[in-house]
Every structure is written in C-alpha cells, then in structure tokens.
Amino acid sequence: MFAYVVRRVLATIPVMAVVALFVFSLLYIAPGDPAAVIAGDQATPQDVERIRESLGLDRPYLVRFSAWVWDILRGDLGVSIFTNLPVSTMIAQRIEPTLSLMIVTLILAISIAVPMGVVAAWKQGTLIDRAVMAFAVLGFSVPVFVVGYLLAYYFALEWDLLPVQGYTPFSEGFWPWLENLILPAIALGSVYIALIARITRATMLEVLQQDYIRTARAKGVGQRAILFLHALKNAAVPIVTVIGIGIALLIGGAVVTESVFAIPGLGRLTVDAILRRDYPVIQGVVLLFSFVYVLVNLAIDLLYTLFDPRIRY
Amino acid sequence: MLRRDLMKAGLAAGAATGLQRAAVAQTPRARTLRMVPQANLTSLDPIWTTANITRNHGHMIYDTLYGLDAEFRPQPQMAAGHVVEDGGRSVTITLRDGLRFHDGEPVRAQDVVPSVQRWMRRNPFGQKIASVTDAVEVVDDKRLRFRLKRPFPALFAGLGQVSNSPAFIMPERLANTDPFQQVREAIGSGPFRFKADEYNSGSMVVYTKNEAYVPVSSGTPSLTAGPKVAHFDRVEWHIIVDAATAAAALQTGEIDWYEQPPPEIQQLFGRNRNIRVETIDPLPLIGILRFNHLHPPFDSKAMRQSILPAISQEDFMSAVVGTNPRDYRTGVGVFTPGTPLANDAALAPLTGPRSIERAKELMRAAGYTNQPMRLIGPTDILAPSAMTQVGADLVRRLGYNADIVLTDWGTTVQRRTSREPVERGGWSMLFTAFSSFDFANPAAHFPLRGNGTGAWFGWPTAPRLEELRDAWFEAPDLATEQRIAREIQEVAMDELPYVPVGAYMSNTALRNDLSGRVAGLALFWGIRRG
C-alpha cells in the first residue's frame, strides 16, 4: 500500500509537468495583453510598449517558459503582474474561503443526497421516489447562479435571515463563518446533491436485488440495518467515485458561486486573473487545481480499499 | 439595524443588557464606510497605470500640490502659495505647514521634485510642462522652483490634474522609481492611509483615517480643492463584481455606497426609500467612435466624413443609459458639455436630420469599393459594449464589408494596439468612453491629438490640431482658450480623428443616511453619516 501511494504521488510529477506546459502554451497563444490592461484606456502605444518591456513580456516563448519552470522548481510561483504580490500570497489569501465553501458544500451534499438516494431506492416507484427524482432533475437543470439569486432574494433580501454576500474567516467565530456559507453552499451543492442522489439510488437498487440482502431479510435483519449497514456499504464504491469526480464540478461551480455571493476565493481570483491576463496568477492557480484534483483521485482510490476489502494495491 | 443583527443581539445578550450591547456593537459600523467601487483595485501606483480605480485609490492616500475645484480652477492644496518671477519664467512653490507622510516623515521639496519629475515622464500634460521647463529644483525643504523656458499659465492646472495620473506626491525613495515600474509601497500624505495588511485584491481594500492629516484651513470642499476632512475612521472597498449581489447588499445595508450601478439596477433602487441615486459627476462622460487612420477605408478623410449623417448620438446614448433624456446629452462636440470650452462650432453634420441613405451616397462618392473593415469592441464593459453593439448595427446597415469582433476587454485593448492592416489582424473602428475630466480641455484629451504614430490608438495625423493644442497651453485668458477651442472643434470635425457619439451621466447609489459627498468622482472626504 505504501509503495502504491508513493508511486501515485510520484506519478503526479509528469502530470503536473504536462499541465504546466499546456497552461503556459495556451496563455502564450491566447489573445490579450496585460501591458495594455495596466496602461489603461488613456495610455499611448509607446506607454504600452514600455510597460511590456519592463514586465519581460517581449521575451521569446522559450526564455519565458524556462524562467517560469526554473522558478517553480525553486518553489516560487512568481509575482502578480498587477498587484506586485507573490502568487503564493494571493493563493494563501484566497484558499480558506474556497476550502470552506467546498467543505460545507460536501458535508451538506453528502448528508442530504445519500439518505435521499437510499430512501428513493427503498421506496422505489412510490411518490417519495418520484419526488426525489424530480428534485434531482431540477438540481441538474437549474443553473447554480439562478439558485443563488433565488436564495439571496428570499433568505437575505426578503427575510433578512442571512447575509447577501461576503466571507468571514473561521478565526472570527464559527457562526459568522457558517452564516456566510449557508446560501452559497446550498446553491453550489444543488447539482452535486442531485448527482449523488441519483447515483446512490441507482446503485442501491442494484445492490438491493442481491442474494445476501434477501438472506439478511430472511434472517429478520431490520430494514434500517439492511439499508445502511449491508446495502449502502456495498454500494459505496460508485458513490465515492462520483463524489470524487464531483470535486471538479465543485471547483467549476465555485467560480460562479463565489461571484454571485462575493466570496473572495480562488474561483474569483482565477476569473479576475484571466480577464486581465495576469499570467503568473493563472498559471499558479491552475497548477494548484490540477494538483488538488490528482490528490483527490488518489484519496478516492485509497478509500476503495476501505469499502471493498477485495481491492488491494 | 439588520433583523439578523437583532436576533444575534437577543441571543447573545441578557434581557437587561441586550440593547445596550447592540448599540455599542453598532458604533464601529457607524464609523466605517462600506462601498462597492467601480472595479477591482489591481494596481496601487497611479502613475504607472491610468486606470480610474487606481486614480481613485490615489486620491485616498496621496495629495497634490494643487487641487482643481468644480470649475476646474487650480487652488493650492499641498502648496501654501507660489511666487512668479522673471516675467513668468520662474515659479517658486512653497509647501504648507503640517504635511507629513503616513510613515511619519515630513513632506519636503526633496520628495515633491522627484514625484513631479516622475509624473512628467508619464502624463501628457506633464510631458508638455517638461517641454517648457529647463529645471525643477529644490530651493530648500519647503520650497521648489520651476525654471521655465517661457511663461506657462497652465502649469498649476497641470499640477492639479484630477484624472489620468494626477501629479500625486510620494516620498522621495518611492518617487525615484522608474515610471514604467510600479512603486513597492503605497505611502502618501493624503487624508487616508492604505492598509496593506488587509489588502486582498479582488475582495477588499481598506483605508483608515490619517489622524495626522492637516486639511487646508479655508474654502469648502470642491472636487479636489478645499479642505479634505475625513469623517470616517475606516473606509472599506468591497469588490462585488455581480451587480445584483451588490444591489442586494446595498438594500440590506451591508454596504453604504454602490459607485456605478448599471441602469437597470438604478431603476430598482428608485423603489427603495432608504437609497438615493444621484449623478456622481455633474458633468457627463463622453462616448467616441475612433477610426484607424493608418489603413483603408478610414485613412481617407472623405470616408470618415461619410459616416456622419448616419450617427445618431441619441441611439448610442440610449443603448448606454436607457431612454430617459435626463441621463444623456446629444449635440456633443469634442469638449465635455457644461465645461467652459464646450461649444457648437462645426457640429451641423451631427445635429441635422439623420440619414443612412445620405451616408451611403457619401460612402460611394468617397470611393468605397467594398474594402474589408473590422470593428472591435468589448462585451464586458458596459458603455463601450453598448456603443459597439449600436455601431455594429450601423456599419451593417451602411453596407460595409464588416468583420465585427467582440471579445473581452483584455483582448480588445490588445487588438487596438495593432497597427497592421485588417487582413493582418488590424482594426478599423472601435468605441470607447472617457471621463468628463479627460475632455475638459486639450491637455489630457488623447483622442484629439493629431501627432500620427505618437497619437492615441488610431494614430491620426492632423498638424493643425497639434498647433492649436500648443496655442491653448499658452493662452493667457479664458476668452482666448474658448476661441482656440472653437477652432479645434472645427478642425476636428473636418479631420475627424474620432466622432463624438454623445455624452451620458454616471449615476451612483447611496444609503440615505450619507450626506456631504463631494461631487466629481468617488472621493471620501466630506462624506459623513447623518
């Protein structure tokens, strides 16, 4: 197992190298010029050119790429073209809100979606099942920003129960922290809940047809124990896989959610950096996201062994 | 007080002390001004970038030797006064007492001179001053001297320029930074201090009141002139990119001021009695259609002129701010409506009956033979985007062989730097907007320059415009300035470096408990709660 983990961690290196090359090349050929954005609308072409030179943007592709890779190998993600702040500092400023949003969304989604899926499978064909499926279709169909606006309108504007926007660090207290995350987490989690609920239901339906479930019932095991101890554990592998895949969904959704609820997270940082062509920040954040995604996949693979002892690495 | 605050107060406090605690908790909030600015503050050096948001940041923390009042008259700000000698060729400025930078150091002439010199290398008005200046020198700690080649009456107006990189004064060690590099710290001597430790670009910018600031002792606040008295201990800029979210935050009282709500949001605020919408600047912004003068079809003056009968300023402005005539101006020339130099010379081609057919006739007479043209414009900046949409429709109706390229702003500003012909990725036409300050006089009026490849994007060559601009700088009085301004407009409407497509008001929205806002731009002195 240990050797497997080491191998997988080492395997992230070529993956990250490919991502780095891809991201850098894509940005190099993409239109847009940070010097022109910096100089502003009133700048002359000469001003733009001087700024471009001072930022080193006039250097050839290979020179810029080599310098960037060399910096990364030394643990330096570079400095933002605009703010003059180290990219690592900017990421550090933004990681807590995004991480908080992800965690609250994950907890919320799993604690709602898994029981929903289990109950829908148990009550297959009934009104409850149809209601769960209808909710799932709705969750898939309604865009995150629409859910976000509706929640903000009712819970913040109309009823004044929760704040419209912003983020309070965890260090300032649990409730202030959670208060700002409830609406965004529900908005972001709506698709995720729908996805997990559907997969849980489908997998549970398959498992509930198995002989050992029939045997358990024949032995007089209670319904709750059958569902949550026998069936759910055996249905867990595909559910965990979907939860893992859903992390990417959450990263994408976080960009929209952070915009709607003005949460200063990595999603907003990425969009802002792309719009103004802040290359070092874009490269740093994309590298971070891909690294996280590789790690999440590794964690999911390791979780398989927990739920299915037959799996060995 | 918000309902949830009350709930929290009720939960947290005992019955006897609950309301008292709530009142105490409200005090810091009352001393804090929360505002959603027009854009994210990404760069902190207002000399390095001309971005308006960085200019606003500059007015928070820096001061200028002279301020401009609402009539654009220069008034001493950091200066106690000046002495003009040697027939106007020597100007000695004395700094007023009590000026200190935020790091506690006194402001000396040794700080002012490199600050002005750095500004003169980047700013067009400053470059003009540099061209008539033999030297800017330190006389002693309190005095600096401009040794001029000849009298230059516009010197003080230049030093007090409000927009497009004002001549902000920085400590000597920062002012010595290459003007094409960003300064590393944000330390000024202005009424607010920048909280670097709380700066989170894209999220929050925080300023605190500069307790050591000594405002000028007389006058009333007027644009950047007069006493800059800060009434809030803390000012927070909350960067909220989503207009609906910012609107909701203003309605719930989470923020106090929303600098630039879009027109549809302004209508929403009209129904809320806790919010008022007012013009941020009594003067309008101006929209322009810019031609690329280097390549066909608009390298031909006749081709540029042919489009005039089809330009409806009302159409362009309605697209930007809606159909309420209160919010826009038509019959707009090359200077900001409402300013002393605005005039109606040679505007007949823009104000007579509008006719697409007439424009088509003129196009044919000018020799248009279906050459390709490219209109570039952004989709993510409100006014230029709306004007580009109207322009795109117009060039299609006129029958141009048009390639309409709509991208994000970052791409547009890159593409407009291209001097290549259309077939090699160049452009022919674009739309953008400028603030009232930029077009108030010829000094900062980029699109009016006719200095060819040295001019603003589009690169028109119009030597007469340059001569008139130079003459304006030397004008001894307003009457002469106005005469020159009329002639500039006549030449501009003939050469057409650009076409004015109207002017529009920029509105701002505030909670009703705020008063004393200084008009012009987002300034934070004068404004108070109550």
From TrEMBL, chain A:
The chain crosses the membrane at residues 9-30, 99-122, 134-157, 177-197, 235-261, 281-307. Residues 95-304 form the ABC transmembrane type-1 domain. Belongs to the binding-protein-dependent transport system permease family. This is Peptide ABC transporter. The lineage of its organism: Bacteria, Pseudomonadati, Pseudomonadota, Alphaproteobacteria, Acetobacterales. CDD domains: TM_PBP2. It is a multi-pass membrane protein. Keywords: Cell membrane, Membrane, Transmembrane, Transmembrane helix, Transport. SUPFAM superfamilies: MetI-like (SSF161098). It is found in: Cell membrane. The keyword Nucleus does not apply. GO terms for cellular component: plasma membrane. It comes from Falsiroseomonas bella. InterPro entries: BPD_transp_1_N, MetI-like, MetI-like_sf. Its main location: membrane. GO terms for molecular function: dipeptide transmembrane transporter activity. It holds the Pfam family BPD_transp_1_N.
UniProtKB/TrEMBL annotation, chain B:
The keyword Ribonucleoprotein does not apply. GO terms for cellular component: ATP-binding cassette (ABC) transporter complex; outer membrane-bounded periplasmic space. SUPFAM superfamilies: Periplasmic binding protein-like II. InterPro entries: Peptide/Ni-bd (IPR030678), SBP_5 (IPR039424), SBP_5_dom (IPR000914). The keyword Signal applies. It holds the Pfam family SBP_bac_5. Keywords: Signal. GO terms for molecular function: peptide transmembrane transporter activity. GO terms for biological process: peptide transport. Residues 74-439 form the Solute-binding protein family domain. This is ABC transporter substrate-binding protein. It comes from Falsiroseomonas bella.
